[in-house]
Amino acid sequence: MNEVSAYVAEGEQDAEATVRPKRLAEFIAQHRVRDQLDLLLRGAMGRGTPPDHILLSGPPGLGKTTLANIVAAELGSGIRVTSGPAIERSGDLAAILTSLATGDVLFIDEIHRIAKPAEELLYSAMEDFRVDVVVGKGPGATAIPLDVEPFTLVGATTRSGLLTGPMRDRFGFVAHLDFYAAADLEQLLHRSARILGVPITDEGAVEIAGRSRGTPRIANRLLRRVRDYAEVRADGMVTLATAREALKVYDVDALGLDRLDRAVLRALVDSFKGGPVGLSTLAVAVGEQPDTVEEVCEPFLVRAGLLARTPRGRVATDAAWQHLGRALPAGRISAPNAPADLFASDQRFP
Ligand SMILES: Nc1ncnc2c1ncn2[C@@H]1O[C@H](COP(=O)(O)OP(=O)(O)OP(=O)(O)O)[C@@H](O)[C@H]1O
């Protein structure tokens, strides 16, 4: 996994936890989602019932796990955390569900990857707070109904388009987290720097924010890398100069693209003449899993107008050729920058 991707590397989780906002009021930006959640939670607390189930979607590192923890903290409830791939058998899920206390929050990350039998069990738990646990096999199998205490499911997904209709319909509140504006990331960096005791100038924060791909987790990670550099090679202060020098060492370019992002663009432009090319072929060309290319690199490349996802495959836009410093080949049909709605549609393209 490359240095600055939006996934958390082992050993960095403590640093992440230190700066993670604990309450809604500390959660920066995403005002619409924050307001809506605030209403949902206060309404439910006023009535003394658990709020509707909540689905959070969006690219990695934008705050889904943080919001799930905030929901529990605001409700004053306990939280159980698991993930779709971790629930292999419906029995695993039944054990979790039946051990929940009244009002608990159950957070399922990557909920689109939950196994089918477990998903079906979840339907009745979400709707009727009841699960049928099947004991035995074949004609002798019996279903034992078990009660589940009223709870709130918070599901997180990077691919809401992959959720089945029945699953999506059972969430009373669905929120899509979008990439953060640079100004919001500056605010976030100042907050994190304060908590970590890192002196930072406004220009330093602007520089890091501009290269953070609209993603809080990446902003926090770059801050830690620039802090290392500032402490080892300068006087410890994060400034414009230390940020620039450090980010050069870590191979993060002016748009915030890292090695994998650039490898994807280079493969598209140099090996496939700008595309269209299918996702799996592109992933093989850069030596990564298709899921990583699709979920980690592409959302931002599309957002930055460098790559378009079309029904015929991935295409490098004119801006991608320019960003790589390549001349557009003569006779090439120009691919204008990707329209934002292609990204928002969140569909799986070939
Ligand atoms: N709105 C925000 N305000 C302040 N910090 C934030 C905000 N959103 C995210 N962060 C920070 O970014 C880090 C990553 O957030 P989080 O783990 O919630 O992302 P995620 O969307 O759940 O990603 P993944 O799906 O990969 O787990 C957190 O440690 C938190 O400190």
Automatic annotation (TrEMBL):
<feature type="binding site">
    <location>
        <position position="217"/>
    </location>
    <ligand>
        <name>ATP</name>
    </ligand>
</feature>
<dbReference type="Pfam" id="PF05496">
    <property type="entry name" value="RuvB_N"/>
</dbReference>
<dbReference type="Pfam" id="PF17864">
    <property type="entry name" value="AAA_lid_4"/>
</dbReference>
<keyword id="KW-0963">Cytoplasm</keyword>
<keyword id="KW-0238">DNA-binding</keyword>
<keyword id="KW-0234">DNA repair</keyword>
<feature type="binding site">
    <location>
        <position position="66"/>
    </location>
    <ligand>
        <name>ATP</name>
    </ligand>
</feature>
<protein>
    <recommendedName>
        <fullName>Holliday junction branch migration complex subunit RuvB</fullName>
        <ecNumber>3.6.4.-</ecNumber>
    </recommendedName>
</protein>
<feature type="region of interest" description="Small ATPAse domain (RuvB-S)">
    <location>
        <begin position="181"/>
        <end position="251"/>
    </location>
</feature>
<feature type="binding site">
    <location>
        <begin position="127"/>
        <end position="129"/>
    </location>
    <ligand>
        <name>ATP</name>
    </ligand>
</feature>
<keyword id="KW-0227">DNA damage</keyword>
<dbReference type="InterPro" id="IPR004605">
    <property type="entry name" value="DNA_helicase_Holl-junc_RuvB"/>
</dbReference>
<dbReference type="InterPro" id="IPR036388">
    <property type="entry name" value="WH-like_DNA-bd_sf"/>
</dbReference>
<dbReference type="GO" id="GO:0016887">
    <property type="term" value="F:ATP hydrolysis activity"/>
</dbReference>
<dbReference type="GO" id="GO:0006281">
    <property type="term" value="P:DNA repair"/>
</dbReference>
<comment type="subunit">
    <text>Homohexamer. Forms an RuvA(8)-RuvB(12)-Holliday junction (HJ) complex. HJ DNA is sandwiched between 2 RuvA tetramers; dsDNA enters through RuvA and exits via RuvB. An RuvB hexamer assembles on each DNA strand where it exits the tetramer. Each RuvB hexamer is contacted by two RuvA subunits (via domain III) on 2 adjacent RuvB subunits; this complex drives branch migration. In the full resolvosome a probable DNA-RuvA(4)-RuvB(12)-RuvC(2) complex forms which resolves the HJ.</text>
</comment>
<keyword id="KW-0067">ATP-binding</keyword>
<dbReference type="InterPro" id="IPR008824">
    <property type="entry name" value="RuvB-like_N"/>
</dbReference>
<dbReference type="GO" id="GO:0009378">
    <property type="term" value="F:four-way junction helicase activity"/>
</dbReference>
<feature type="binding site">
    <location>
        <position position="65"/>
    </location>
    <ligand>
        <name>ATP</name>
    </ligand>
</feature>
<dbReference type="InterPro" id="IPR036390">
    <property type="entry name" value="WH_DNA-bd_sf"/>
</dbReference>
<dbReference type="InterPro" id="IPR003593">
    <property type="entry name" value="AAA+_ATPase"/>
</dbReference>
<dbReference type="GO" id="GO:0005737">
    <property type="term" value="C:cytoplasm"/>
</dbReference>
<feature type="binding site">
    <location>
        <position position="309"/>
    </location>
    <ligand>
        <name>DNA</name>
    </ligand>
</feature>
<feature type="binding site">
    <location>
        <position position="64"/>
    </location>
    <ligand>
        <name>ATP</name>
    </ligand>
</feature>
<keyword id="KW-0378">Hydrolase</keyword>
<dbReference type="GO" id="GO:0048476">
    <property type="term" value="C:Holliday junction resolvase complex"/>
</dbReference>
<feature type="binding site">
    <location>
        <position position="61"/>
    </location>
    <ligand>
        <name>ATP</name>
    </ligand>
</feature>
<comment type="similarity">
    <text>Belongs to the RuvB family.</text>
</comment>
<feature type="binding site">
    <location>
        <position position="170"/>
    </location>
    <ligand>
        <name>ATP</name>
    </ligand>
</feature>
<keyword id="KW-0547">Nucleotide-binding</keyword>
<dbReference type="InterPro" id="IPR041445">
    <property type="entry name" value="AAA_lid_4"/>
</dbReference>
<feature type="binding site">
    <location>
        <position position="314"/>
    </location>
    <ligand>
        <name>DNA</name>
    </ligand>
</feature>
<keyword id="KW-0347">Helicase</keyword>
<dbReference type="GO" id="GO:0006310">
    <property type="term" value="P:DNA recombination"/>
</dbReference>
<feature type="binding site">
    <location>
        <position position="20"/>
    </location>
    <ligand>
        <name>ATP</name>
    </ligand>
</feature>
<feature type="region of interest" description="Head domain (RuvB-H)">
    <location>
        <begin position="254"/>
        <end position="350"/>
    </location>
</feature>
<feature type="domain" description="AAA+ ATPase">
    <location>
        <begin position="50"/>
        <end position="181"/>
    </location>
</feature>
<dbReference type="GO" id="GO:0005524">
    <property type="term" value="F:ATP binding"/>
</dbReference>
<feature type="binding site">
    <location>
        <position position="180"/>
    </location>
    <ligand>
        <name>ATP</name>
    </ligand>
</feature>
<dbReference type="InterPro" id="IPR027417">
    <property type="entry name" value="P-loop_NTPase"/>
</dbReference>
<dbReference type="Pfam" id="PF05491">
    <property type="entry name" value="WHD_RuvB"/>
</dbReference>
